[in-house]
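Reopening closed ticket. The problem is back. First fold of the pair:
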Amino acid sequence: MGKRVLAALVGLAVLLPALIWGGMVAVLVIASLALLIAQDEYAGMALPEAKGMGRGILLPGGLAIFLVAALAPDWLIPAVSVGFMLALLVPMFATADVKLAATQAVRLGFGLIYVPVMLAPLIWIRREEDGLALVFFVLAITWLGDTGAYFAGRFMGKTPLFPRVSPKKTREGLYGGVVFAVAGALGVWWIGGVALPWWSVVALGVVLDLAGVVGDLAESLLKRAFEVKDSGWIMPGHGGILDRIDSLLFSAPLLWVALLIRGQEVLPW
Protein backbone atom coordinates (compact mmCIF):
# COMPACT_ATOMS: atom_id res chain seq x y z
CA MET A 1 0.00 0.00 0.00
CA GLY A 2 2.93 2.34 0.69
CA LYS A 3 4.16 2.07 -2.91
CA ARG A 4 0.64 2.75 -4.15
CA VAL A 5 0.30 5.95 -2.11
CA LEU A 6 3.81 7.17 -2.99
CA ALA A 7 3.26 6.59 -6.72
CA ALA A 8 -0.05 8.46 -6.53
CA LEU A 9 1.55 11.44 -4.75
CA VAL A 10 4.41 11.63 -7.25
CA GLY A 11 1.92 11.47 -10.12
CA LEU A 12 -0.19 14.26 -8.66
CA ALA A 13 2.90 16.41 -8.02
CA VAL A 14 3.61 16.30 -11.75
CA LEU A 15 0.05 16.32 -13.07
CA LEU A 16 -1.56 19.10 -11.05
CA PRO A 17 0.90 21.94 -11.89
CA ALA A 18 0.88 20.92 -15.56
CA LEU A 19 -2.91 21.03 -15.73
CA ILE A 20 -3.21 24.31 -13.82
CA TRP A 21 -0.48 26.32 -15.55
CA GLY A 22 0.09 24.42 -18.77
CA GLY A 23 -3.22 25.23 -20.41
CA MET A 24 -4.75 23.29 -23.26
CA VAL A 25 -1.35 22.28 -24.64
CA ALA A 26 -0.39 20.54 -21.40
CA VAL A 27 -3.62 18.53 -21.34
CA LEU A 28 -3.07 17.46 -24.94
CA VAL A 29 0.58 16.50 -24.34
CA ILE A 30 -0.17 14.59 -21.11
CA ALA A 31 -3.10 12.77 -22.71
CA SER A 32 -0.99 11.90 -25.77
CA LEU A 33 1.84 10.48 -23.64
CA ALA A 34 -0.63 8.48 -21.55
CA LEU A 35 -2.23 7.18 -24.71
CA LEU A 36 1.08 6.02 -26.21
CA ILE A 37 2.02 4.14 -23.04
CA ALA A 38 -1.47 2.63 -22.79
CA GLN A 39 -1.33 1.55 -26.44
CA ASP A 40 2.03 -0.10 -25.84
CA GLU A 41 0.60 -1.92 -22.82
CA TYR A 42 -2.44 -3.04 -24.78
CA ALA A 43 -0.24 -4.30 -27.63
CA GLY A 44 1.78 -6.36 -25.15
CA MET A 45 -1.38 -7.88 -23.65
CA ALA A 46 -3.42 -8.44 -26.79
CA LEU A 47 -0.70 -9.53 -29.21
CA PRO A 48 2.04 -11.20 -27.17
CA GLU A 49 3.08 -13.28 -30.18
CA ALA A 50 3.34 -10.24 -32.46
CA LYS A 51 4.29 -7.28 -30.27
CA GLY A 52 6.24 -5.60 -33.05
CA MET A 53 3.29 -5.62 -35.42
CA GLY A 54 0.93 -4.53 -32.65
CA ARG A 55 3.08 -1.60 -31.60
CA GLY A 56 3.76 -0.64 -35.21
CA ILE A 57 0.03 -0.18 -35.82
CA LEU A 58 -1.41 0.70 -32.43
CA LEU A 59 1.03 3.42 -31.33
CA PRO A 60 1.15 5.68 -34.43
CA GLY A 61 -2.36 4.70 -35.52
CA GLY A 62 -3.83 5.22 -32.06
CA LEU A 63 -2.10 8.57 -31.63
CA ALA A 64 -3.28 9.74 -35.05
CA ILE A 65 -6.89 8.72 -34.35
CA PHE A 66 -6.77 10.37 -30.90
CA LEU A 67 -5.44 13.66 -32.30
CA VAL A 68 -8.03 13.63 -35.09
CA ALA A 69 -10.82 12.88 -32.59
CA ALA A 70 -9.59 15.60 -30.23
CA LEU A 71 -8.75 18.34 -32.74
CA ALA A 72 -10.62 17.58 -35.98
CA PRO A 73 -13.57 15.27 -35.19
CA ASP A 74 -15.09 15.77 -38.66
CA TRP A 75 -12.22 13.61 -39.94
CA LEU A 76 -12.69 10.88 -37.33
CA ILE A 77 -14.61 8.40 -39.50
CA PRO A 78 -12.03 8.53 -42.37
CA ALA A 79 -9.19 8.18 -39.83
CA VAL A 80 -10.81 5.17 -38.14
CA SER A 81 -11.59 3.63 -41.53
CA VAL A 82 -7.94 3.82 -42.60
CA GLY A 83 -6.88 2.40 -39.24
CA PHE A 84 -9.27 -0.54 -39.63
CA MET A 85 -7.96 -1.21 -43.13
CA LEU A 86 -4.44 -1.54 -41.71
CA ALA A 87 -5.70 -3.65 -38.82
CA LEU A 88 -7.27 -6.09 -41.28
CA LEU A 89 -4.67 -6.11 -44.02
CA VAL A 90 -1.41 -6.30 -42.07
CA PRO A 91 -2.22 -9.55 -40.16
CA MET A 92 -3.72 -11.03 -43.32
CA PHE A 93 -0.39 -10.74 -45.11
CA ALA A 94 1.96 -11.02 -42.12
CA THR A 95 0.50 -14.06 -40.32
CA ALA A 96 0.33 -17.44 -42.02
CA ASP A 97 -2.23 -18.98 -39.65
CA VAL A 98 -5.66 -17.76 -40.82
CA LYS A 99 -7.39 -18.04 -37.43
CA LEU A 100 -4.55 -16.25 -35.65
CA ALA A 101 -4.54 -13.53 -38.32
CA ALA A 102 -8.27 -12.97 -37.81
CA THR A 103 -7.81 -12.78 -34.03
CA GLN A 104 -4.98 -10.29 -34.44
CA ALA A 105 -7.07 -8.16 -36.81
CA VAL A 106 -9.97 -7.98 -34.33
CA ARG A 107 -7.67 -7.11 -31.42
CA LEU A 108 -5.88 -4.44 -33.47
CA GLY A 109 -9.16 -2.91 -34.60
CA PHE A 110 -10.44 -2.80 -31.02
CA GLY A 111 -7.16 -1.25 -29.88
CA LEU A 112 -7.57 1.61 -32.34
CA ILE A 113 -10.89 2.55 -30.71
CA TYR A 114 -10.64 1.63 -27.02
CA VAL A 115 -8.23 4.29 -25.73
CA PRO A 116 -7.81 6.70 -28.70
CA VAL A 117 -11.50 7.49 -29.19
CA MET A 118 -12.69 7.17 -25.60
CA LEU A 119 -9.95 9.48 -24.26
CA ALA A 120 -10.73 12.27 -26.75
CA PRO A 121 -13.73 13.71 -24.80
CA LEU A 122 -11.28 14.81 -22.10
CA ILE A 123 -9.86 17.30 -24.62
CA TRP A 124 -13.34 18.47 -25.61
CA ILE A 125 -14.19 19.00 -21.95
CA ARG A 126 -11.08 21.15 -21.46
CA ARG A 127 -12.26 23.48 -24.23
CA GLU A 128 -15.42 24.42 -22.33
CA GLU A 129 -15.58 27.84 -20.68
CA ASP A 130 -15.10 26.21 -17.28
CA GLY A 131 -12.97 23.48 -18.83
CA LEU A 132 -10.14 23.38 -16.30
CA ALA A 133 -12.59 22.98 -13.43
CA LEU A 134 -14.47 20.31 -15.37
CA VAL A 135 -11.27 18.34 -16.01
CA PHE A 136 -10.49 18.39 -12.30
CA PHE A 137 -14.14 17.52 -11.67
CA VAL A 138 -14.03 14.28 -13.68
CA LEU A 139 -10.54 13.40 -12.43
CA ALA A 140 -11.59 13.91 -8.80
CA ILE A 141 -14.70 11.77 -9.22
CA THR A 142 -12.86 9.01 -11.05
CA TRP A 143 -9.71 8.78 -8.97
CA LEU A 144 -11.18 9.56 -5.55
CA GLY A 145 -13.90 7.04 -6.30
CA ASP A 146 -11.21 4.47 -7.07
CA THR A 147 -9.33 5.40 -3.87
CA GLY A 148 -12.48 5.16 -1.75
CA ALA A 149 -13.32 1.79 -3.27
CA TYR A 150 -9.79 0.52 -2.60
CA PHE A 151 -9.76 1.43 1.10
CA ALA A 152 -13.40 0.51 1.78
CA GLY A 153 -12.91 -2.81 0.05
CA ARG A 154 -9.61 -3.45 1.83
CA PHE A 155 -10.93 -2.81 5.35
CA MET A 156 -14.66 -3.55 5.09
CA GLY A 157 -15.12 -5.59 1.92
CA LYS A 158 -17.02 -8.87 2.37
CA THR A 159 -19.56 -9.20 -0.45
CA PRO A 160 -18.16 -9.84 -3.95
CA LEU A 161 -19.34 -7.38 -6.60
CA PHE A 162 -18.63 -9.25 -9.84
CA PRO A 163 -16.33 -12.20 -9.03
CA ARG A 164 -16.46 -13.69 -12.53
CA VAL A 165 -14.57 -10.66 -13.86
CA SER A 166 -12.89 -9.11 -10.82
CA PRO A 167 -12.75 -11.36 -7.75
CA LYS A 168 -11.33 -8.69 -5.41
CA LYS A 169 -14.00 -6.03 -5.97
CA THR A 170 -16.71 -5.85 -3.32
CA ARG A 171 -20.04 -4.10 -2.88
CA GLU A 172 -18.68 -2.37 0.21
CA GLY A 173 -15.86 -1.01 -1.92
CA LEU A 174 -18.40 0.24 -4.45
CA TYR A 175 -20.31 2.13 -1.73
CA GLY A 176 -17.12 3.64 -0.34
CA GLY A 177 -16.10 4.72 -3.82
CA VAL A 178 -19.40 6.49 -4.39
CA VAL A 179 -19.03 8.41 -1.12
CA PHE A 180 -15.49 9.54 -1.98
CA ALA A 181 -16.51 10.41 -5.54
CA VAL A 182 -19.41 12.60 -4.44
CA ALA A 183 -17.18 14.30 -1.86
CA GLY A 184 -14.59 14.97 -4.55
CA ALA A 185 -17.23 16.30 -6.94
CA LEU A 186 -18.59 18.70 -4.31
CA GLY A 187 -15.07 19.78 -3.36
CA VAL A 188 -14.14 20.73 -6.94
CA TRP A 189 -17.56 22.37 -7.41
CA TRP A 190 -17.05 24.51 -4.32
CA ILE A 191 -13.40 25.43 -4.98
CA GLY A 192 -13.30 25.48 -8.78
CA GLY A 193 -16.62 27.06 -9.64
CA VAL A 194 -18.11 24.33 -11.84
CA ALA A 195 -21.20 25.88 -13.43
CA LEU A 196 -23.68 23.26 -12.22
CA PRO A 197 -26.20 23.26 -9.35
CA TRP A 198 -25.29 21.19 -6.33
CA TRP A 199 -27.89 18.49 -6.96
CA SER A 200 -26.56 17.77 -10.45
CA VAL A 201 -23.01 17.70 -9.02
CA VAL A 202 -24.09 14.99 -6.58
CA ALA A 203 -25.92 13.09 -9.34
CA LEU A 204 -22.91 13.27 -11.64
CA GLY A 205 -20.64 12.18 -8.81
CA VAL A 206 -22.68 8.99 -8.47
CA VAL A 207 -23.20 8.34 -12.19
CA LEU A 208 -19.62 9.05 -13.27
CA ASP A 209 -18.20 6.96 -10.44
CA LEU A 210 -20.40 4.02 -11.43
CA ALA A 211 -19.31 4.51 -15.03
CA GLY A 212 -15.71 4.39 -13.84
CA VAL A 213 -16.38 1.12 -12.01
CA VAL A 214 -17.80 -0.35 -15.23
CA GLY A 215 -14.73 0.90 -17.11
CA ASP A 216 -12.47 -0.79 -14.58
CA LEU A 217 -14.45 -4.02 -14.89
CA ALA A 218 -14.21 -3.81 -18.68
CA GLU A 219 -10.43 -3.67 -18.50
CA SER A 220 -10.43 -6.50 -15.97
CA LEU A 221 -12.39 -8.55 -18.48
CA LEU A 222 -9.71 -7.90 -21.10
CA LYS A 223 -6.89 -8.77 -18.70
CA ARG A 224 -8.56 -12.04 -17.72
CA ALA A 225 -9.07 -12.90 -21.38
CA PHE A 226 -5.41 -12.06 -22.12
CA GLU A 227 -4.28 -13.83 -18.93
CA VAL A 228 -2.35 -10.94 -17.39
CA LYS A 229 -2.57 -9.44 -13.89
CA ASP A 230 -1.69 -5.82 -14.73
CA SER A 231 -1.51 -3.95 -18.02
CA GLY A 232 2.02 -2.76 -17.18
CA TRP A 233 4.51 -1.91 -14.44
CA ILE A 234 5.16 1.82 -14.84
CA MET A 235 3.29 2.81 -11.64
CA PRO A 236 4.34 0.74 -8.59
CA GLY A 237 1.29 -0.52 -6.72
CA HIS A 238 -1.05 0.57 -9.51
CA GLY A 239 0.10 -1.46 -12.51
CA GLY A 240 0.24 0.27 -15.86
CA ILE A 241 -1.12 3.50 -17.26
CA LEU A 242 -4.07 1.63 -18.74
CA ASP A 243 -4.89 0.39 -15.24
CA ARG A 244 -4.99 4.05 -14.14
CA ILE A 245 -7.12 5.47 -16.95
CA ASP A 246 -9.54 2.57 -17.57
CA SER A 247 -12.21 4.24 -15.41
CA LEU A 248 -11.62 7.63 -17.03
CA LEU A 249 -12.28 6.12 -20.46
CA PHE A 250 -15.90 5.63 -19.37
CA SER A 251 -16.47 8.61 -17.06
CA ALA A 252 -15.10 11.34 -19.37
CA PRO A 253 -17.37 10.47 -22.34
CA LEU A 254 -20.39 10.41 -20.03
CA LEU A 255 -19.50 13.82 -18.62
CA TRP A 256 -19.29 15.10 -22.19
CA VAL A 257 -22.80 13.73 -22.84
CA ALA A 258 -24.01 15.59 -19.75
CA LEU A 259 -22.40 18.80 -21.04
CA LEU A 260 -24.06 18.32 -24.43
CA ILE A 261 -27.40 17.97 -22.67
CA ARG A 262 -26.63 21.13 -20.67
CA GLY A 263 -25.81 22.98 -23.89
CA GLN A 264 -29.05 21.88 -25.52
CA GLU A 265 -30.99 22.98 -22.43
CA VAL A 266 -32.68 19.61 -22.22
CA LEU A 267 -32.14 19.72 -18.46
CA PRO A 268 -32.19 22.88 -16.27
CA TRP A 269 -28.42 22.90 -15.62
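Second fold of the pair, where the issue appears:
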Amino acid sequence: MKTENNMVISVNHISKSFGDRNVLDDVTMHVNHKEIVSVLGISGSGKTTLFNLISGVLPCNEGEIVTNSKIGYMMQKDLLMPWKTVMENIALPLILKGVDKNTANNTVHSFLEQFGLKNTENEYPNALSGGMRQRASLLRTYLFSGEILLLDEPFSSVDAITRHQLHQWLLAIYEELSLSILLITHDIEEALLLSDRIYVLSGSPASVVAEIIITDPRTGRFDGLASEERNKAREKIYSLLEGEAKESNDEVEKRRERITRKIIRKNNKEE
Protein backbone atom coordinates (compact mmCIF):
# COMPACT_ATOMS: atom_id res chain seq x y z
CA MET A 1 0.00 0.00 0.00
CA LYS A 2 1.24 3.49 -0.80
CA THR A 3 1.79 6.19 1.78
CA GLU A 4 0.27 9.63 1.44
CA ASN A 5 1.83 13.08 1.15
CA ASN A 6 5.55 13.21 1.92
CA MET A 7 5.82 9.97 3.93
CA VAL A 8 7.79 7.05 2.53
CA ILE A 9 7.24 4.75 5.56
CA SER A 10 4.22 4.90 7.85
CA VAL A 11 3.98 2.57 10.88
CA ASN A 12 0.49 2.70 12.40
CA HIS A 13 -0.28 1.23 15.83
CA ILE A 14 1.56 -2.04 15.25
CA SER A 15 1.92 -4.78 17.84
CA LYS A 16 3.88 -8.01 17.69
CA SER A 17 4.06 -10.99 20.00
CA PHE A 18 5.79 -14.36 19.93
CA GLY A 19 3.62 -16.82 21.80
CA ASP A 20 2.73 -15.17 25.09
CA ARG A 21 5.64 -12.69 24.90
CA ASN A 22 4.57 -9.25 23.72
CA VAL A 23 7.54 -7.53 22.00
CA LEU A 24 5.99 -4.41 20.40
CA ASP A 25 2.92 -2.63 21.70
CA ASP A 26 1.03 0.04 19.70
CA VAL A 27 4.09 1.46 17.92
CA THR A 28 3.50 4.41 15.58
CA MET A 29 6.21 6.27 13.64
CA HIS A 30 6.98 7.54 10.16
CA VAL A 31 9.79 8.53 7.80
CA ASN A 32 9.43 11.37 5.33
CA HIS A 33 11.04 11.63 1.92
CA LYS A 34 14.77 12.41 2.14
CA GLU A 35 14.84 12.18 5.92
CA ILE A 36 17.11 10.30 8.32
CA VAL A 37 15.24 8.94 11.32
CA SER A 38 16.88 6.98 14.17
CA VAL A 39 15.36 4.43 16.53
CA LEU A 40 16.98 4.21 19.98
CA GLY A 41 16.20 1.73 22.71
CA ILE A 42 17.85 -0.53 25.27
CA SER A 43 18.96 -4.02 24.25
CA GLY A 44 16.02 -6.36 23.81
CA SER A 45 13.50 -3.59 23.24
CA GLY A 46 12.36 -4.99 19.88
CA LYS A 47 14.18 -2.69 17.46
CA THR A 48 15.24 -5.48 15.07
CA THR A 49 11.77 -7.02 15.30
CA LEU A 50 10.39 -3.64 14.23
CA PHE A 51 12.64 -3.67 11.15
CA ASN A 52 11.63 -7.24 10.35
CA LEU A 53 8.00 -6.09 10.33
CA ILE A 54 8.67 -3.01 8.19
CA SER A 55 10.68 -5.05 5.66
CA GLY A 56 7.98 -7.74 5.48
CA VAL A 57 10.13 -10.50 6.97
CA LEU A 58 7.53 -10.91 9.75
CA PRO A 59 3.79 -10.15 9.86
CA CYS A 60 2.23 -7.78 12.41
CA ASN A 61 -0.29 -9.09 14.93
CA GLU A 62 -2.05 -5.73 14.89
CA GLY A 63 -1.71 -2.45 13.04
CA GLU A 64 -0.57 -1.51 9.57
CA ILE A 65 2.68 -0.60 7.79
CA VAL A 66 2.55 1.28 4.48
CA THR A 67 5.37 2.36 2.18
CA ASN A 68 5.62 4.12 -1.16
CA SER A 69 8.41 1.98 -2.63
CA LYS A 70 10.47 -1.17 -2.21
CA ILE A 71 12.62 -1.12 0.94
CA GLY A 72 16.24 -2.20 1.25
CA TYR A 73 17.20 -3.79 4.58
CA MET A 74 20.86 -3.81 5.67
CA MET A 75 21.43 -5.92 8.77
CA GLN A 76 24.19 -5.53 11.36
CA LYS A 77 26.58 -7.92 9.58
CA ASP A 78 27.54 -7.11 6.01
CA LEU A 79 26.61 -10.67 4.88
CA LEU A 80 29.02 -10.53 1.94
CA MET A 81 29.67 -13.98 0.53
CA PRO A 82 33.38 -14.76 0.95
CA TRP A 83 33.56 -16.92 -2.16
CA LYS A 84 32.25 -14.16 -4.42
CA THR A 85 34.09 -11.05 -5.59
CA VAL A 86 33.00 -7.56 -4.62
CA MET A 87 31.39 -7.19 -8.05
CA GLU A 88 29.53 -10.49 -7.74
CA ASN A 89 28.33 -9.68 -4.21
CA ILE A 90 27.02 -6.24 -5.10
CA ALA A 91 25.46 -7.34 -8.40
CA LEU A 92 23.52 -10.18 -6.75
CA PRO A 93 20.20 -8.32 -6.22
CA LEU A 94 20.21 -7.17 -9.85
CA ILE A 95 20.88 -10.73 -11.07
CA LEU A 96 18.04 -12.00 -8.86
CA LYS A 97 15.76 -9.39 -10.46
CA GLY A 98 16.55 -10.91 -13.86
CA VAL A 99 19.04 -8.30 -15.07
CA ASP A 100 21.62 -9.85 -17.39
CA LYS A 101 25.15 -10.17 -16.00
CA ASN A 102 26.80 -7.56 -18.22
CA THR A 103 24.15 -4.92 -17.49
CA ALA A 104 24.31 -5.72 -13.76
CA ASN A 105 28.10 -5.43 -13.72
CA ASN A 106 28.01 -2.14 -15.63
CA THR A 107 25.46 -0.75 -13.16
CA VAL A 108 27.61 -1.77 -10.19
CA HIS A 109 30.72 -0.36 -11.83
CA SER A 110 29.03 3.02 -12.30
CA PHE A 111 28.60 3.33 -8.50
CA LEU A 112 31.94 1.95 -7.25
CA GLU A 113 33.84 5.23 -7.12
CA GLN A 114 30.89 7.06 -5.54
CA PHE A 115 30.77 4.42 -2.79
CA GLY A 116 34.54 4.49 -2.21
CA LEU A 117 35.10 1.10 -3.84
CA LYS A 118 37.01 2.01 -6.99
CA ASN A 119 39.27 -0.81 -8.28
CA THR A 120 37.91 -3.34 -5.77
CA GLU A 121 35.52 -5.17 -8.12
CA ASN A 122 37.79 -8.22 -8.48
CA GLU A 123 38.76 -8.39 -4.80
CA TYR A 124 37.19 -10.81 -2.32
CA PRO A 125 35.55 -9.52 0.88
CA ASN A 126 38.37 -10.70 3.15
CA ALA A 127 40.71 -8.27 1.35
CA LEU A 128 38.55 -5.26 2.26
CA SER A 129 38.66 -3.10 5.38
CA GLY A 130 35.64 -3.07 7.68
CA GLY A 131 34.54 0.30 6.33
CA MET A 132 34.80 -0.85 2.72
CA ARG A 133 32.78 -3.99 3.48
CA GLN A 134 30.03 -1.82 4.98
CA ARG A 135 30.03 0.44 1.91
CA ALA A 136 29.81 -2.61 -0.37
CA SER A 137 26.89 -3.92 1.66
CA LEU A 138 25.16 -0.54 1.53
CA LEU A 139 25.58 -0.33 -2.25
CA ARG A 140 24.10 -3.81 -2.62
CA THR A 141 21.15 -2.74 -0.43
CA TYR A 142 20.65 0.43 -2.45
CA LEU A 143 20.66 -1.45 -5.78
CA PHE A 144 18.03 -3.81 -4.40
CA SER A 145 15.65 -1.13 -3.21
CA GLY A 146 16.31 2.33 -4.54
CA GLU A 147 15.76 5.25 -2.22
CA ILE A 148 14.38 3.78 1.06
CA LEU A 149 16.87 2.07 3.37
CA LEU A 150 16.55 0.33 6.74
CA LEU A 151 19.96 0.26 8.42
CA ASP A 152 20.29 -1.94 11.54
CA GLU A 153 23.36 -0.67 13.42
CA PRO A 154 25.39 -0.51 10.20
CA PHE A 155 28.54 0.92 11.79
CA SER A 156 28.68 -1.00 15.09
CA SER A 157 31.39 -3.38 13.84
CA VAL A 158 33.98 -0.74 12.92
CA ASP A 159 36.38 1.33 15.02
CA ALA A 160 35.57 4.87 16.15
CA ILE A 161 37.69 6.62 13.50
CA THR A 162 36.22 4.54 10.67
CA ARG A 163 32.73 5.11 12.07
CA HIS A 164 33.28 8.87 12.03
CA GLN A 165 34.43 8.69 8.40
CA LEU A 166 31.44 6.53 7.47
CA HIS A 167 29.05 9.01 9.10
CA GLN A 168 30.34 11.80 6.90
CA TRP A 169 30.37 9.56 3.82
CA LEU A 170 26.79 8.39 4.49
CA LEU A 171 25.55 11.96 4.69
CA ALA A 172 27.23 12.78 1.38
CA ILE A 173 25.66 9.73 -0.32
CA TYR A 174 22.31 10.51 1.30
CA GLU A 175 22.36 13.96 -0.29
CA GLU A 176 23.61 12.80 -3.71
CA LEU A 177 21.11 9.93 -4.04
CA SER A 178 18.15 11.58 -2.23
CA LEU A 179 17.86 8.68 0.21
CA SER A 180 15.30 8.18 2.97
CA ILE A 181 16.81 6.27 5.89
CA LEU A 182 15.47 4.59 9.04
CA LEU A 183 18.40 3.74 11.30
CA ILE A 184 18.67 1.53 14.38
CA THR A 185 21.48 2.54 16.70
CA HIS A 186 22.57 2.10 20.31
CA ASP A 187 24.84 5.12 19.93
CA ILE A 188 23.16 8.33 21.11
CA GLU A 189 25.88 10.51 19.58
CA GLU A 190 25.44 8.76 16.23
CA ALA A 191 21.72 9.47 16.34
CA LEU A 192 22.33 13.13 17.22
CA LEU A 193 24.86 13.54 14.40
CA LEU A 194 22.83 11.93 11.64
CA SER A 195 19.14 12.34 12.39
CA ASP A 196 16.34 14.70 11.54
CA ARG A 197 14.23 12.93 14.14
CA ILE A 198 14.82 10.31 16.83
CA TYR A 199 12.28 7.83 18.22
CA VAL A 200 13.05 6.48 21.70
CA LEU A 201 11.54 3.08 22.52
CA SER A 202 10.57 1.77 25.93
CA GLY A 203 11.67 -1.64 27.15
CA SER A 204 9.80 -4.83 26.26
CA PRO A 205 7.04 -4.63 25.22
CA ALA A 206 8.34 -1.66 23.27
CA SER A 207 6.35 1.45 22.54
CA VAL A 208 7.41 4.95 21.49
CA VAL A 209 8.08 7.06 24.59
CA ALA A 210 9.48 10.11 22.80
CA GLU A 211 9.95 11.67 19.36
CA ILE A 212 12.83 14.14 19.35
CA ILE A 213 13.30 16.60 16.49
CA ILE A 214 16.81 17.85 15.63
CA THR A 215 16.80 21.05 13.59
CA ASP A 216 20.53 21.90 13.72
CA PRO A 217 22.07 21.94 10.23
CA ARG A 218 24.03 18.73 9.71
CA THR A 219 26.98 20.68 8.35
CA GLY A 220 27.66 22.03 11.83
CA ARG A 221 27.33 18.79 13.75
CA PHE A 222 30.86 17.56 13.05
CA ASP A 223 32.67 20.65 14.32
CA GLY A 224 33.03 19.22 17.82
CA LEU A 225 30.75 21.83 19.36
CA ALA A 226 27.45 20.68 20.86
CA SER A 227 24.52 23.01 20.33
CA GLU A 228 22.03 23.78 23.08
CA GLU A 229 19.39 21.83 21.16
CA ARG A 230 21.52 18.68 20.94
CA ASN A 231 22.60 18.98 24.59
CA LYS A 232 18.96 19.07 25.69
CA ALA A 233 18.12 16.17 23.38
CA ARG A 234 21.06 14.15 24.75
CA GLU A 235 19.98 14.74 28.35
CA LYS A 236 16.40 13.74 27.58
CA ILE A 237 17.45 10.55 25.76
CA TYR A 238 19.84 9.49 28.54
CA SER A 239 17.14 10.09 31.13
CA LEU A 240 14.59 8.03 29.20
CA LEU A 241 16.95 5.14 28.44
CA GLU A 242 18.36 4.99 31.98
CA GLY A 243 14.82 4.78 33.31
CA GLU A 244 13.96 2.01 30.87
CA ALA A 245 17.14 0.10 31.71
CA LYS A 246 16.34 0.27 35.45
CA GLU A 247 12.80 -1.00 34.85
CA SER A 248 14.15 -3.80 32.67
CA ASN A 249 16.70 -4.84 35.32
CA ASP A 250 14.00 -4.74 38.01
CA GLU A 251 11.85 -7.06 35.91
CA VAL A 252 14.75 -9.47 35.42
CA GLU A 253 15.39 -9.51 39.16
CA LYS A 254 11.70 -10.15 39.88
CA ARG A 255 11.71 -13.09 37.42
CA ARG A 256 14.79 -14.53 39.11
CA GLU A 257 13.10 -14.27 42.50
CA ARG A 258 9.95 -16.00 41.18
CA ILE A 259 12.00 -18.82 39.65
CA THR A 260 14.04 -19.22 42.84
CA ARG A 261 10.85 -19.44 44.94
CA LYS A 262 9.42 -22.08 42.59
CA ILE A 263 12.60 -24.16 42.83
CA ILE A 264 12.59 -23.92 46.63
CA ARG A 265 8.91 -24.95 46.81
CA LYS A 266 9.55 -27.86 44.45
CA ASN A 267 12.53 -29.05 46.48
CA ASN A 268 10.56 -28.80 49.72
CA LYS A 269 7.75 -30.93 48.26
CA GLU A 270 10.19 -33.58 47.05
CA GLU A 271 11.72 -33.79 50.52
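Update: turned out to be a display glitch only; the data is intact. The chain has a mean pLDDT of 85. The first strand starts at residue 7 and ends at 18. Please close again.
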